[in-house]
Amino acid sequence: MTRKDTVPLNGRTPSPVHLSRLGFGGAPLGNLYRKIEERAAQETLDAAWAAGIRYFDTAPQYGLGRSEMRLAEALRRFDPDQVTLSTKVGRLLLDCAPEEVTPEAFVDVPQKRIVFDYTHDGIMRSFEDSIARLGTDRIDMLFLHDLDAGTHGQAGEDENLRQLFSEGGYRALTDLRDAGRISAIGAGVNAWRVCERLLGEAEFDGFLLAGRYTLLEQTALDSFLPLCERRDVGIILGGPYNSGILATGAAPGARYDYAPAPEAVLERVRRIEAVCTAHATPLIAVALQFPLAHAAVRSVIPGASSADEVRRNVEILQTPVPPALWSDLKGEGLIRADAPVPEETPHAA
C-alpha cells in the first residue's frame, strides 16, 4: 500500500490528507447496539489494515471513548506513515455517577456523561482528551461533531455556531491546523445544510456526512455538493446504508436513520431491490458504490463490527454493477437523473 493508492481530501491543505476510497467507521467498535469483545475489535481493525484500508475515523461519543481507546491499540501495530486518522470535537466526556452515564445507543461503556461544548476551551479540551485516548501526538482531521439542528434543534444549532465563531471554537481549530497538530478541519454531521451554512461563514477542508447522499437521499445535489466541488471541499460519506436498510433490504426490523424504517421508505427500497434483482446484483453493492461516483466524495466509510464484515465490505465494493442497472434506477425515478453513477467498479482501497 502506497500513497498512490489513495486520494487527497482536497488540493488545498498545506499538509495533504490522503484517504483510501474505502475507509473504516469506528462507531461499532464503541459497542454500538451490542457488546464487542476486545479481541474481536482488534481482529476487525487488523482485517481492515490487511485489506488495504488506511483511513480510520472515530469519535469520543463512540462508546464514551471506547472506540478511540481500541483504535489506539491498533495504531501501535500500524505503520504511522500510512495511517490517516480522524476524530471529532464538541463532546466532552466527564466523570459522573452511574445514574448519569450517557449511553445513547452504546452498551458496556465507561462511567462518563457527555457535555456539548463548541467554544475555544471546549474544542481544545476535547482534542487533548482524544490525543490521550488515541495515544498519538497528531490527528489528521478534526471534525466538529453533531452541532446541527438534528441533534440540538434549530435554536441549539444557532447557539453552537455562535460558540464556534464568537467564543473561539473555530479559532481553536485553525490554530491547531496552523501549528501542524492537525492537517484538516471540518464537521461530522447527519445533515448537509449545516455544512453549507458553515461554508458560508468560514473555510473548511472537508466534511464527514452521514447518510445524506445515498440511494435513498440525493437532495445534497441541489446546492451543497456543487458548492463543495467549486470550493474543493472533500466529502467523506458515512452511513452509506442509511442505518442498515440499504444493506438488509426491506426486511422485517429494517432500520432507517437510526429508527425502524417507515412504510414509504420500505416501499422505495423494495422497488430499488427489484431493479437490483433483475440485474442479479446485490443491493448492498449498489448502495456502497453509488456515492463514490460523485466528484466531491473522496471516501466512503461503512461501519464494521467484525473481520468478516470488513472483508464483506471490500468484496461488495468490488462487485461489478451493470451500467444498465443505473439506467433503470434513473428511468424508474428511483435515483435522480442528475446523480453521477459509477462508470466502473471502484478499487477497494
UniProtKB/TrEMBL annotation:
Domain NADP-dependent oxidoreductase: residue ranges: 21-326
InterPro entries: AKR, NAD(P)_OxRdtase_dom_sf, NADP_OxRdtase_dom
Gene Ontology MF terms: oxidoreductase activity
GO cellular component entries: cytosol
PANTHER family membership: GH17980P-RELATED
The name this protein goes by in its record: L-fuco-beta-pyranose dehydrogenase
Taxonomic source organism: Limimaricola cinnabarinus LL-001
